[in-house]
Amino acid sequence: MADKALPTALNLPMVDPLPEATQKYFDVCQDKLGIIPNVLRAYAFDIEKLDAFTGIYNNLMLAPSGLSKLEREMIAVVVSSINKCFYCLVAHGAAVRAMSGDPKLGEALVMNYRVADIDARQRAMLDFAAHMTTASATIEETHRAALREVGFTDHDIWDIANVAGFFNMTNRVASATAMMPNDDYHAQAR
């Protein structure tokens, strides 16, 4: 996708010029990632919506947590795999490959996390995120207890649920708007 092309099927061009704080944020993304993720470009037609999205994303994915940044990316990929969200599978699959240094892990999580070479703790975490994605209303205390049995705290369970919930929401928005991932993600960390 060309840099100036719209990142979704909707005709919602970015605010031009971007507010100074937003431009600084985009500049940081360009410096750190080498790209401005299309999801940010998609939200940039409305700076309040962009700020709300980035605020919750940064809090869930980057703030201190009992979950590693890799584990949070793993949840993003598994939820996105179940929801068949092309944007998030490509973008967060690349993040898993980069953070883990293991292209096979990234591919396994995209295809079927149950074949991934992960430990019992991560498997329980991903089982919970998958269950939440497919049948959240059926989650009971036994499901939370299974997480505690492998060492997760109640705060960790909160974080697992919130990361999974966030990606269930963003997957639906990305799919409904035909949001396309940046081409650069496809070749990263392979």
Structure explained in plain terms:
Helix content is 65%, strand content 0%. It is globular. It has nine helices and no strands. Helix 7 runs antiparallel to helix 8 and helix 7 crosses helix 9. The mean pLDDT is 95. It has two domains: 20-62, Up-down Bundle (Single alpha-helices involved in coiled-coils or other helix-helix interfaces); 69-187, AhpD-like, CATH 1.20.1290. The chain has helices at 20-33, 38-43, 47-62, 69-83, 86-100, 103-112, 120-135, 141-149, 154-176. The protein has 190 residues and is mainly alpha-helical. This is Peroxidase-related enzyme. It holds the Pfam family CMD. GO terms for molecular function: peroxiredoxin activity. Keywords: Oxidoreductase, Peroxidase. InterPro entries: AhpD_core, CMD-like, Uncharacterised_peroxidase-rel.
Number of strands: 0
The overall average pLDDT, rounded, is: 95
Largest β-sheet summary = none
The SSE string, one letter per element, is HHHHHHHHH
Assign the CATH class of the largest domain: Mainly Alpha
Low-confidence stretches: none
Ends: how far apart? 20 Å
What CATH architecture of the largest domain do you see? Up-down Bundle
Strand content: under 5%
Give the CATH topology of the largest domain: AhpD-like
Q: Which structural class is indicated by helix and strand composition? A: mainly alpha
Provide the gyration radius in Å.
17 Å
The percent of residues in helical segments reads: 55-70%
Domain Carboxymuconolactone decarboxylase-like: 51-99
Keywords: Oxidoreductase, Peroxidase
GO molecular function, one term: peroxiredoxin activity
Pfam families: CMD
